[in-house]
Specification:
six-stranded antiparallel beta sheet; 2 domains; single chain
Length: 288
């Protein structure tokens, strides 16, 4: 549990920095838990200058770094995967090797070039010790997990291995900066189908993706939609204080919209467009 909390806090730091471009300055020595100081340099989370290797750590080209594309200006190495491109500071890549295995799950394992100690792994569309979050795609989402290996504190390379292991949080910070990553949530692909809502006037169709999250109350004179106690919108089959969408076989359909608190609730509220789309395809419905 303690290890999970530490991982979560470190991830939170990385996501905050990637979102806000934080700029704290401070001691860059190795610590048991990554902090804002170890995750940001003089500019933002993307500043590779934070990677000040421990004394005596080999970082020359003789370490045999892989030949991924490099940017001299930003001093990054990019690992391309079927799901996302991972950015690594070049100084990290000189000291740490990686190997890729599998398809789904797709696993990238990072090891010390000095003694082949496994440091951490990033897993796409699989399971792991820690849930990093979900990469939101237009057609398909990708759930990302991570594993960290317990290091031997008596090993002569412990300090350097710990230093490079902690750069996992930096890499995930880059991932959050470069992509639409929802942290610490496993979000399934959107269900493209709609489900039926039988009412006294007409059959309505609402997105199936919200079926388990939206409460629907069917009344004699309309339908009310809410989520976790927050009203989203009402469709009323009589004149009211909302605005008129149209009429069905001469009966008016009004919509009453309520303020929402989250982006997810706003998306649920936007589901009324699906209802309206199906209504417009019904010859008995007349747009206002």
């Amino acid at each position: 549990m303690k290890k999970t909390i530490i991982f979560t806090l470190a991830l939170l730091c990385a996501f905050l920095l990637s979102a806000c471009g934080a700029n704290p300055a401070g001691d860059q020595t190795t610590a048991a838990v990554p902090t804002l100081e170890t995750l940001a340099g003089d500019g933002s989370v993307t500043d590779p200058a934070i990677l000040t290797e421990p004394d005596g750590m080999e970082t020359s080209e003789e370490a045999g770094a892989p030949t991924e594309s490099k940017s001299e200006e930003e001093n990054f190495v990019t690992i391309s995967t079927p799901y996302a491109d991972l950015r690594l500071p070049a100084s990290f890549d000189k000291a740490v090797s990686h190997e890729e295995t599998g398809n789904e799950p797709y696993v990238i394992t990072f090891k010390s070039r000095t003694d082949e100690t496994e440091l951490f792994s990033i897993i796409f569309n699989g399971t792991g010790e820690y849930l990093v979050g979900t990469l939101m795609g237009e057609e398909k989402n990708t759930v990302v997990h991570a594993n960290t290996n317990d290091l031997d504190q008596n090993d002569q390379n412990y300090e350097s291995n710990l230093f490079y292991q902690e750069q996992l949080y930096l890499i995930l910070g880059y991932l959050a900066e470069d992509y639409n990553l929802v942290p610490e949530e496993a979000i399934d692909d959107e269900d493209p189908t709609d489900f039926e809502i039988q009412t006294s006037l007409v059959t309505l169709y609402y997105p199936s993706r919200w079926k388990e999250k939206v409460e629907i109350e069917v009344l004699d004179n309309g339908v009310k939609f809410s989520a976790a106690g927050t009203p989203l919108f009402d469709l009323m089959f009589e004149e009211c204080d909302g605005y008129m969408l149209g009429s069905y076989e001469g009966t008016p359909i009004y919509m009453v919209e309520y303020p929402v608190e989250t982006e997810e609730q706003a998306a649920m509220q936007a589901g009324v467009n699906t209802i309206l789309q199906h209504l417009t395809e019904d010859p008995s419905f007349t747009i206002n």
